[in-house]
Design a protein that fits this description.
Pfam families: OTT_1508_deam (PF14441). This protein has 445 residues and is mainly α. It has 18 helices and 7 strands. It has 2 domains: 171 residues, no CATH class; 256 residues, no CATH class.
């Protein structure tokens, strides 16, 4: 977001890009916010609420459908609750849930969900009285439904701020048609092992069991690896915004140094933002995605080109730090930021990658307090399939699922930045790592 006097520009991006419906909604939303700021409409924001409700209706229907499947089981939870206010509010929620699903009922459901969350002791009651997985899922669903009404309340508060949003423009960032969507000449599993300085005489079952999986055959391991290499590359929303600002020559220092995200940032996005500057997000869930990508870009100023190049260098330093750290078991953290407050909250910040040149004291302290146990790093135990890390092969020395988080993402980096066949000779292998990364990214800058 950039503010200049009473003029505000907000850039928005989505991982998968925007549809025509999305763009129409953003235009209407901008108009509603301008009208509210100018006091040209009902101060209760009824028109804005209807706009939000209709746009999010398909998602609300999905939440309601999931709750209805277990509504009778959820109603049994009422018998376990001792607090009368909480119990009464939850009963009203179930009553509305079981009514026919019209737009008005969805609106009431969202309002009731927020009322439940606003109960002073609600969070403590959930911690003490919601024990089962089904009960925790119920609370999570209530949070998702309440989020829309909370957003409406926040928008109203913002619109009443003096001189803010008198002239507002929400600018959706469209996906670059020239964006690279697939890996050119992707690495094979053998090439990847060799690039990581693992040099088996041939790819055999012993190699697979030691470095890849204890259960996969050679053929199966190669098949899974090749399938992942064929997946489309993705430019995450955080990077889309940075690249758009660079393309349009908007100084990063002139924008608000915070990106509001519906989800926590992935490990590589957070590492990029930390290395690039001081832009904060909701937090970092710590997962790795092997199709994470940096987009192509042309016609940018030399200073920005140098800054992006320096960011890539810093990112690589972060990845090298992770490679040499002992494997650490961390508490799981969901991608969704539902129910969290700003990035300073402990729940939202425990997995933020550190900058290579300095230790972030507060985050480091939070990071250390999440360690359940530490395992000595076994530098040659690599390429273990990690189901908790979506769509990625990660480096780890432990087979326990709880330990398969925030692991050194060297393979992800190779997958990401691999745009051409760079392994053709011994000299090509020696180049590897940082040189390959910089050489491949330079044409894009």
């Amino acid at each position: 977001m950039r503010e200049s006097g009473d003029h505000v520009v907000i850039w928005v991006a989505r991982n998968g890009g925007f549809s025509g419906k999305d763009i129409s909604f953003l235009k209407e939303f901008s108009a509603e916010m301008r009208a509210l700021a100018a006091r040209n409409v009902d101060g209760s924001g009824a028109s804005l609420w209807n706009l939000l409700l209709n746009y999010y209706l398909p998602r609300l229907q999905d939440y309601r459908g999931r709750l209805l499947v277990k509504v009778q089981e959820h109603r049994q939870t009422l018998n376990l609750i001792g607090n009368e206010d909480f119990k009464h509010s939850l009963k009203l929620f179930f009553d509305i849930l079981e009514q026919p699903g019209g737009t008005n009922e969805f609106g009431r459901l969202c309002c009731q969900a927020l009322q439940i969350q606003d109960i002073a002791l609600a969070q403590n009651l959930v911690q003490t009285e919601f024990k089962s997985g089904s009960q925790r899922q119920l609370w999570k669903s209530i949070g998702f439904l309440a989020r829309l009404r909370r957003a409406h309340r926040t928008f109203l508060k913002i619109s009443r701020t003096p001189l803010i949003f008198r002239s507002i423009k929400v600018h959706p960032i469209t996906k670059n048609q020239d964006e690279i969507t697939s890996i050119h000449s992707p690495l094979t599993l053998s090439d990847t092992l060799r690039l990581l300085d693992i040099r088996p005489s041939r790819l055999n079952q012993t190699t697979i069991q030691r470095y890849v999986s204890s259960t996969c055959s050679v053929e199966k391991a190669q098949q899974i690896f090749n399938q992942r290499q064929k997946q489309s590359l993705q430019v995450h929303a955080e990077l889309q915004i940075i690249w758009h600002l660079a393309r349009t020559h908007v100084p990063i220092e002139n924008v608000f140094q915070y990106m509001g995200c519906s989800k926590r940032s992935c490990f590589l996005c957070k590492a990029f933002l930390n290395s690039f500057g001081s832009i904060e997000t909701r937090g970092c869930h710590g997962k790795l995605y092997n199709q994470w990508s940096i987009p192509a870009i042309q016609r940018i100023e030399l200073t920005m080109k140098e800054r992006l190049e320096d960011t890539v260098n810093r990112m690589w330093d972060i990845l090298l730090q992770e490679l040499h750290k002992p494997l650490q078991t961390l508490a799981a953290l969901s991608e969704s930021s539902n129910g969290t407050t700003p990035a300073s909250s402990s729940a939202a910040s425990i997995l933020i990658p550190e900058r290579p040149s300095e230790k972030t004291k507060v985050e480091k302290k939070k990071f250390d307090t999440t360690h359940i146990r530490k395992i000595n790093w076994l530098p040659r135990y690599v390429l273990v399939d990690c189901p908790m890390v979506t769509k990625s092969l990660a480096l780890t020395a432990c087979s326990r699922p709880a330990a398969r988080r925030l692991v050194p993402p060297i393979l992800s980096v190779i997958d990401v930045f691999r745009r051409e066949n760079t392994i053709s000779s011994a000299s090509g292998e020696a180049e590897s790592a940082r040189a390959i990364l910089l050489r491949l990214i330079s044409p894009l800058l």
